[in-house]
Amino acid sequence: MTLSLRVAIVGAGPAGIYAGNILTSAVRDRGGEVDIDLFESLPAPYGLIRYGVAPDHPRIKGIVNSLHEMLDAGVIRLIANVEIGRDLSIDELHDHYDAVILATGAVRDATLDLPGIDLPGSYGAADFVSWYDGHPDVPRTWPLEAEQIAVIGNGNVALDVARVLAKHPADLRSTDAPANVLAGLEASPVTDVHVFGRRGPAEVKFTPIELRELGEVPNVDLIVSDEDFAAVDASLAPNNQVKIMLRTMESWRTRERTGAPRRLHLHFFHSPVEVLGDGRVEGMRFERTEPVPAADGGTPGAVRGTGEFRDYPVQAVYRAVGYFGSPVIGAPFDERRGVVPNAGGRVLDERGEAVPGLYATGWIKRGPVGLIGHTKSDAMETIEHLVADAVSGRLTAPAVADRDAVLELLADREVEVTTWDGWLALDAHERALGAADAHPRERVKVVPREEQVARSRAGILTR
Asked: Which amino acid positions bind NADP(+), per UniProt (predicted)?
């Protein structure tokens, strides 16, 4: 059977772009043709690669090069600055496409249910990341007023947040950090950033690269506690990656302190109990934990409370305990898990039955876990099921035959759509700003949404 499909993908981050690229190959391998429209709520593509990766991570941002090639090939049509559920409904997408793939990711902070967590001075890491990455829909300023800061979490986002908070702004001037972010960090009075993990050093969730970068922050002393390593045996680590990280952290125990004006502390075996303060954050209370012995039924990584409590006099708390998905209006959503309910990428309704022509991939499908490699395999599974449904006749042909009808509908609603050509114009403008900066760099991000849209739609290049 020769396939001829029109598919809408919602979300222009890695999950959506990979899904489009894999779908193109899968259909063409069968001798078929596919038209793909990639919808994005922001004026620019790339999702968390643009707005969720710390500005001093150029190696990770190199992923953009491969994503650029996929979109620049011209098979996938970018329709950006369009909010599905507001500018177009899911039902309207079904009218125009054989299938719809949700790839909206997870951009909200997971909750942390603690007394005092909502005090002024307590923040979600995702919001802070959006600020320092120049997301157009967050405030331009951030209240950087604390000298002592607690970061709760032991994943890569926790390390990113801690590193950016502790780093001297001069060391970020070579990155694409927007001017308002550099100005905000310049005014920060921070002296100490404390990162807290509930379990031990062998159970961290970050990667060796992230950890190594933490130890390379200029003019910042890195401090770990001897007591956190007393019961840790690197030779018993479950894999080489953990062994490398344990050796790295062990080396920091004996590193001579330089007397740097800023310090970054790693604390383990600390379970958060309460955010302290009268009217705003004034401290953080933790219960000291310990490994549960195998004789007591403990499994690797299991900890229990010791009854010993410790208070830290911090003036700000950042929770980096994970991301959480947001619902797409008109699509099923699991409020408990923060995902679209699905079976292998086929979206399920409240009865557990597959919704015809509706699929999911990426973090909105499986939750905010895994790296880029997982995103690719995730998309392959979803596309495999979509193609199988097309071959078996389970997809309904779109009621609207004209491919450009969806653009006409958006124009009638006065939605200021941005396109791939518009992104190329905005990209060139940002690169020109970077080249002309007092500290030349790859680019300087344009932050305001209205300016992004105007540059994209007019195709203005600043040379």
From this structure: 154-157, 198-199, 210, 370
